[in-house]
């Protein structure tokens, strides 16, 4: 197994396993932003019916299930056994056929080059030692003209204030220690990594949280959370 992993991060998310599908629990922010992410992917891809889709770092399967419900043939990978167990059980209970696997994306790329129409990698890059390794593997996995969706967090004082002090310590939207500011990635840095992987940046859009409304919305503000879409040449 490729070693672009941080066991502390895997353990951290394993501890959330029992709460993955509780919309008011520790994974509440994921449930709030999931419809936005799904709508954005669908908007950029059109119909997902019978498309081959890979969800990298799938956790408990929140995004994976939404993509499967749109008709995609979904494979989803993660390294946390507990999260995968929850994902498999929940998909089975809802009658969804999702191919869950415990595997790194680097190893998956060696076995399935040029296999996927669409790849999603949401909220993972800021939790691994080498984000470029993830992006490069995703590029290998994409079919010609395939699309890659990456979401992560901008590295600036505003993001630190809102996501670490605000979300973790004041609002307690996520458990303390969820984020490491030093691993946040500026959009310009992510664009460079994407281009180094010989992909073309197609779009960048922000996900802005409104505390009083307790909701996110997509827009041009990429100060904190953002999604980047890239195309295979």
From TrEMBL:
Signal peptide: none annotated. It holds the Pfam family Methyltransf_23. S-adenosyl-L-methionine binds at residues 37, 57, 78, 122. Its EC number is 2.1.1.222, 2.1.1.64. One of its GO terms (biological process) is methylation. It catalyses: a 3-demethylubiquinol + S-adenosyl-L-methionine = a ubiquinol + S-adenosyl-L-homocysteine + H(+); a 3-(all-trans-polyprenyl)benzene-1,2-diol + S-adenosyl-L-methionine = a 2-methoxy-6-(all-trans-polyprenyl)phenol + S-adenosyl-L-homocysteine + H(+). Keywords: Methyltransferase, S-adenosyl-L-methionine, Transferase, Ubiquinone, Ubiquinone biosynthesis. It comes from the Bacteria. Coiled coil: none annotated. It is an enzyme of class 2 (transferase). Pathway: Cofactor biosynthesis; ubiquinone biosynthesis. InterPro entries: SAM-dependent_MTases_sf (IPR029063), UbiG_MeTrfase (IPR010233). GO terms for molecular function: 2-polyprenyl-6-hydroxyphenol methylase activity; 3-demethylubiquinol 3-O-methyltransferase activity; polyprenyldihydroxybenzoate methyltransferase activity. HAMAP family: UbiG. O-methyltransferase that catalyzes the 2 O-methylation steps in the ubiquinone biosynthetic pathway. Belongs to the methyltransferase superfamily. UbiG/COQ3 family. This is Ubiquinone biosynthesis O-methyltransferase. It comes from Gilliamella bombicola.
């Amino acid at each position: 197994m490729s070693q672009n992993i941080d066991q502390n991060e895997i353990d951290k998310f394993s501890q959330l396993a029992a709460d993955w599908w509780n919309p008011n629990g520790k994974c509440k922010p994921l449930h709030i932003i999931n419809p936005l992410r799904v709508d954005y992917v669908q908007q950029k891809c059109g119909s997902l019916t019978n498309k081959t889709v890979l969800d990298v770092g799938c956790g408990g399967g929140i995004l994976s299930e939404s993509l499967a419900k749109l008709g995609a043939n979904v494979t989803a990978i993660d390294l946390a056994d507990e999260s995968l167990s929850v994902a498999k059980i929940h998909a089975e209970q809802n009658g969804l056929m999702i191919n869950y696997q415990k595997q790194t994306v680097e190893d998956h790329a060696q076995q399935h080059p040029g296999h996927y129409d669409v790849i999603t990698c949401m909220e993972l890059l800021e939790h691994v030692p080498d984000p470029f390794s993830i992006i490069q593997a995703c590029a290998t996995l994409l079919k010609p003209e395939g699309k890659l969706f990456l979401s992560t967090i901008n590295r600036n004082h505003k993001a630190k204030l809102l996501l670490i002090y605000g979300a973790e310590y004041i609002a307690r939207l996520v458990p303390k220690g969820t984020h490491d500011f030093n691993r946040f990635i500026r959009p310009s840095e992510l664009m460079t990594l994407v281009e180094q992987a010989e992909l073309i940046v197609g779009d960048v859009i922000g996900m802005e949280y409104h505390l009083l409304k307790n909701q996110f919305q997509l827009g041009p503000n990429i100060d904190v959370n953002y999604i980047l879409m890239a195309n295979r040449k």
